[in-house]
Structure formats: structure tokens, C-alpha cells
TrEMBL record:
Keywords: Acyltransferase, Transferase. The lineage of its organism: Eukaryota, Haptista, Haptophyta, Prymnesiophyceae, Coccolithales. PANTHER family: AMINOALKYLPHOSPHONATE N-ACETYLTRANSFERASE-RELATED-RELATED. CDD domains: NAT_SF. Pfam families: Acetyltransf_7 (PF13508). One of its GO terms (molecular function) is acyltransferase activity, transferring groups other than amino-acyl groups. Residues 25-209 form the N-acetyltransferase domain. This is N-acetyltransferase domain-containing protein. It comes from Coccolithus braarudii.
Amino acid sequence: HSGSRVGPVSRRAKMLSTHMAGTTFRVRPARLSEVAAVAKLWHATYFDQVGADQLPEPLQCERRELALYSPRVASMADAGTLLVAVNGSAADELVGFANLKLRGDGAGELEHFFVAASARGTGCSAALLAAAETMLCATPDFWRSSNRHRTESSVGGPAVYLHCMQGNAPAIRFYERCGFQRAGPVVHHVAMSGGTWPLTLLRMEKAAASPHIGPPVMEWSESIAGDEVVA
């Protein structure tokens, strides 16, 4: 992938705490010391995605190798674009992560979003997603890029977007409950050793919150917390 840095999220906002279903989840910038833990979580949850077992065999084989993930996570953490969700009730157990990317077309991408099986259905996914949107929309470069490119989107203005597998119905329902809408299938070039692999994925978009009025408040509810999402 190519694109501009979002900018170190550690400079954009303080750690967010969300109390949900008797559990405290904290969303904060990842630490370099957590690279191995994030890589392990990514590896453990990658094939939880509905449809991951239908990926081309070369891509499946590579994604099963734990060693693949650490260099990519280290790059994200070093760029300051990686957020993690930790369970404050379990000695900061890492339960999710999200990586943000500012694209050259003026849109902001939620590039990676994974939550541990133990934290699904608790509201952790909604809290992490809301924090990622907040961080991205609080970045001045996002608005400068959006205004410069004026990319047309399905939401009629600057957008936050993501990709997910077209058959991943649980993830699609979750994102729709969180305000995203389907923008249609796109060919997405997934990074792998030696280059990329073209996959047809579903692009989903959400209008970016203006920095002048602040990001929308994501209130936890049973309809959102009942997710089983791995994007």
C-alpha cells in the first residue's frame, strides 16, 4: 500500500477508556514493546474471518506463518498509526488492534482491524472502531488531503473506509450498525511476499466527522456490542 502517514496517534489523543458489560477496555497507541503480542493476535485471528478459508492457496499458506506478521506490525508501530485495545481488568491483556492509513486519494482507511475471540460480543470492537475513527478524523493531514483531492465517495464527502470479504456477513452487519455503508466491490491488492495479490473485496464507507464539530460519540448498546467481527 502507498499513502501518507496519519501521524503518531500518541500525539493526537490521550488513552480512551470504555466501560462495557462489566469490563474496562482501554484503547491507546501501541507500544514498540507490544509488537510481538500484536503479531501473535493478528496471526491467531486472521482465519477467524468468514471467507478466509476461500482465499487463494498461496495467500493462505503465507498467512499461516507467524513470522510474516512481526515486521509489518513493527512498521505500523514505528509509524505511530497503530492502536490497541487492552482489557484493563486482566493486566492489560491485548484484545484487539487497528491500523490507520491516509491514502493518496484523500480518504482515510481503517487498514487492519482484528479483535480476539474472547472480547467479541462485549463492545470492545465498537470501542476500538470509534477510537480509530476519532484518531483519523482528528488528523489535520486527513482534512488537507481530502480537501485537495475531493474524492467522490458514496457518502458524498470526505470518508473513512475499509475493506472486508464480501461473504463476511457478521463483519458487514457490524460495520453497518456502526454507520458504514456498502460502496461496492473493488479489486484490492493485498500485500504478500514479493508483491501483492489482487482480491475482490467489499469497500465500506462512512462520512468523516468534521474536526470543527468533533467526532460522533459511539454509545455502547446491545445492538452494537453483539458483534462477532473480525475484519
